[in-house]
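TEACHING EXERCISE
Course module: macromolecular assemblies
Task: Read the component lines below, then compare them to the predicted structure of the full complex.
Student: A.B.
Group: 4
Components provided:
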Amino acid sequence: MINQSQLLDQQFLEARGKLLEVAAFLDRFERAPADSPDFRLTALKEAFKLVAAHDSPNRARFLLELLSDKSSQPLEKSTNTPACGAPINL
Amino acid sequence: MDFIEPHAHMVSRTTDDYELMSLAGCRAICEPAFWAGFDRASAQGFADYFDQLTLWEPRRASRYLIDHYCWLCINPKEAEDPIFAAEVMSLIPELLNRKNVLGIGEIGLNKNTKNELLVFEQHVEIAKKFNQLILIHTPHLEDKLKGTRIILDSLKNAGVDPNRVIIDHVEEHTAPLVMDAGFWAGMTLYPNSKCTAARAVDILEIYGSEKIWINSACDWGHSDPLSIPKAALEMLRRGHSREFVQNLLFKAPQEFLAQSPHFKRL
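Instructor-supplied answer key:
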């Protein structure tokens, strides 16, 4: 496997670019006309905190677990709504 | 570099995609039955689709020197009506002898409902009765972790051989659950959901490359039929050997698929 310096050479700019896109998305969101609070934005901000706080190499896994439905029983019926990427209740 | 595309929905792709995949080294494609983007109005719609998968699509692929295989089922997105699902499932047994059919798939869950689970369990029973391999779809996004857990519990209760089941679309939070239970795991490379090539290689490095495959699941949505060779490039750039990559993308899928008497080793 390549070492940390080589990895930075390969992927730092790409990671920087992706982070910048998220920052710009949040700026764009705040410039847009205000609407009622949305659980997806709450989830995104919680995900930010998680990524920044963790110092173990399990950030991706923990982030996906945060953004998962925590219930365990099958639903009675389909909601007929597509998955959106974040649970209504974190 | 030779590779096998173990999960692609080629009925939704152009002939140009077959050509590009062949040029990139694709030798075989496996096509699970899936949702067409709309709910089919009748079981006859599925009968026509199953003919397309078993009779027509192999001819398109063969023009580009690619072997074409398929899996049959009613997909979980259309499995909320158990009576309709039973009608579709009744079509499957007599088609299992068609020479490119590998097994039952992609079955699984979509919104993790009781009816989806019922139809999933009925598919598993068909697979057991006719000694078929099983390919399983796990739900999207926030529904994936819960759905994967329900599927694993159901498979444990059904007593299936984990070596004959692949559970697809795993990510960082579900890969260890699937692999620890002894099943094969599939990683799907999508631009905006599921895995990217870089994350898929991360998962390989963290959890190992035993009993795992990579696929594009390219379909009518935002997807890339060349994502497997792009993952190969990612692995090589990180310093993995060509032998490792070739084993993962060409040899390992054949180990699983060759459990079907219909699969011809390459």
